[in-house]
Design brief:
Blueprint (H helix, E strand, L loop, with lengths): L15 E2 L2 E2 L2 H21 L4 H26 L3 H9 L11 H4 L15
Antiparallel strand pairs: 1-2
Helix pairs in contact: 1-2
Pfam families: DUF4133
Organism: Pedobacter insulae
Protein name: DUF4133 domain-containing protein
Length: about 120
């Protein structure tokens, strides 16, 4: 019996699938593919299934809960805004005022000329 999953999408709303919003669907998909590849590599390398299955199940559960938590905490664009805000410096230090004093007159602004 085939299952039909409904993806809710309004005109101006982000894609939402089972509570996951926007890019978090892709994060979960990439994480699951990486888990599948790591399972295959570890199984081929000879690791016992008694060790491998609990490891993959634990990592998969952590992935699901982590992605759902990020989706609910930050929303559609909140994670990108969070990382952008963290990359801003707290303050800027200038040791001289030369940069600002040269901006007062328009004659000090360097111009570029294109000569062929």
């Amino acid at each position: 019996m085939a299952s039909v999953y409904k993806i809710n999408k309004g005109v101006t709303r982000p894609i939402e699938f089972r509570g996951l919003k926007a890019q978090y669907i892709a994060y979960l998909a990439v994480g699951l593919v990486l888990l599948l590849i790591s399972f295959a590599i570890l199984y081929i390398s000879g690791l016992s299934l008694l060790v491998l299955l609990p490891l993959i199940i634990t990592l998969g559960t952590t992935l699901f809960f982590g992605v759902f938590r990020l989706s609910h905490r930050f929303g559609e664009h909140g994670l990108m805004k969070f990382w952008a805000k963290r990359s801003l410096p707290n303050y800027l230090k200038f040791r001289s005022r030369r940069l600002f004093t040269s901006l007062k007159s328009k004659s000090n602004i360097p111009t570029t000329s294109f000569k062929n």
